[in-house]
Predict the 3D structure of the following.
Amino acid sequence: MADGHSHPEEHERAPERAPERAKFHAMVDGTREDWSIIADASVAFGRDLPGRLVSHLKLLQGDCGGFAIDRLDHSLQTATRAFQDGRDEEYVVCALLHDIGDILGPRNHADIAAAILQPFVSEENHWMVAHHAIFQGYYFFHHLGLDRDMRDQFRGHPSFEYTAQFCHLYDQEAFDPAYASMPLEAFEPMLHRVMATPKRSIYLRAKEDGA
């Protein structure tokens, strides 16, 4: 007989089903069904990439590395300057992420940022991010006993001036503690839009003839 009171067991939810997994333990044994499961899971995982990038950008906060502002502020300031200068979203996202490799790859940070961006951006923007560390050296390498003209090895490349301009207008300018940068949240929708559809990847199916 009902006693007018609810009981905890009445509101217990059925346990959620565990995500489906492939059955093979070695790739050589994989089936089309296995790889269909994996492909479906990769879609959701890829969709969450912008969120993971935002989390990683936050790891840059508080680490100044001797500069006047921390690495996150530098990233935000670089992106804000590009945005306010009328650059398109893809360019702004490149500006935001250009130093994201600082923590995991302090000796080759540009390579890490470029690898993350490559599937989603133009070849010109990818080249700019991949080479910005060398081009940025024009402003300080000579103070460290290095060749400030190291970038000249690429003179004549179609993206040379494009990359030099990025470093001059946005990157090397972005160390001002008094500058009012846009918050990280303002760039999140841009990240999602730019990274919604890969342009290049070994995992993309080739378009059929005539498509």
DSSP finds eight helices and no strands in the chain. The chain has one domain: 47-194. The mean pLDDT is 91. Residues 32 and 184 are 41 Å apart (CA to CA).
